[in-house]
Backbone:
């Protein structure tokens, strides 16, 4: 696959992306009443819940903190997750692929890619089983051993192998923007999704991951209807500049550089009414595990009302 894109092609592609961004949105199918004024429901990524409690007890703690749902990892014990879901009444809107970092779909080793593909398929089946509508996927990564062009081509080849299953199950593959040196602009991200020519592929937009290099509202306007779910995290450019890149995440919600009113306005502009799934990267001192979850729930609730 050639990765050359001349100026005329780029302008044409960019125009198509921007035009698509203003089309009516097509999001996940969860229809129950939400807790925010916009109808956006509040969840949390299971992997960020601290402590060594059982799945059941963590689900209860999540419910008691005021969340509507939870995003489990792929390949968890399905019976255990289902029992916890049914006992607590929490919804499971999406599942996070458990294999995409260790066995990325961009890996030079075809055996590793095959393992990664099976991880994606398992996550799709997990999400269907739990009543979810999407799977969070890190599409691949670029490093000294994997070129940008190779990551683009390999990951698309592997994702296409999972599209028939996603279409059969009615569960979308939602690609997340992460710090993987890949899909670094919203125009490219939209183009990458559109090239699959399938409604089974969309985007899982992480608000905080953009702050170090850009502005979330710009991504939201361009990705538009492609956004299936949100990850909500905070980031401080000031801490980044003083203490280092990763230290930017060490800040509580509402104390970083996300311009949340502007972000929420952008979500209103595209008609987003799906899930906002907290992925807290900072644990304020002095809070026990239950207190930590209550703090996240309260802060994210405030964000959704802006």
Residues:
């Amino acid at each position: 696959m050639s990765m050359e894109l001349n100026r005329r092609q780029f302008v044409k592609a960019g125009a198509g992306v921007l035009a698509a961004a203003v089309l009516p949105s097509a999001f996940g199918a969860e229809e129950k009443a939400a807790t925010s004024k916009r109808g956006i429901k509040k969840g949390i990524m299971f992997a960020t819940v601290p402590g060594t409690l059982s799945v059941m007890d963590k689900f209860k703690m999540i419910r008691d903190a005021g969340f509507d749902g939870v995003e489990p990892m792929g390949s968890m014990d399905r019976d255990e997750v289902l029992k916890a879901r049914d006992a607590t009444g929490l919804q499971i809107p999406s599942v996070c692929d458990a294999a995409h970092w260790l066995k990325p779909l961009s890996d030079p080793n075809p055996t590793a890619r095959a393992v990664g593909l099976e991880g994606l398929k398992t996550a799709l089946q997990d999400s269907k089983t739990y009543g979810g509508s999407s799977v969070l996927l890190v599409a691949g990564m670029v490093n000294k051993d994997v070129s940008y062009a190779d990551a683009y081509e390999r990951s698309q080849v592997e994702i296409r192998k999972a599209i028939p299953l996603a279409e059969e199950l009615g569960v979308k593959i939602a690609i997340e923007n992460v710090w993987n040196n890949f899909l670094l602009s919203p125009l490219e991200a939209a183009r990458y999704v559109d090239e699959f020519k399938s409604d089974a592929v969309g985007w899982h937009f992480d608000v905080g991951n953009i702050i170090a290099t850009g502005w979330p509202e710009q991504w939201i306007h361009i990705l538009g209807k492609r956004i299936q779910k949100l990850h909500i995290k905070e980031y401080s450019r000031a801490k980044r500049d003083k203490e280092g890149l990763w230290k930017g995440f060490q800040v509580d919600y509402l104390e970083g550089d996300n311009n949340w009113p502007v972000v929420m306005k952008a979500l209103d502009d595209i008609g987003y009414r799906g899930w906002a799934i907290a992925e807290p990267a900072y644990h304020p001192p002095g809070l026990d595990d239950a207190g930590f979850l209550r703090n996240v729930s309260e802060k994210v609730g405030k964000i959704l009302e802006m």
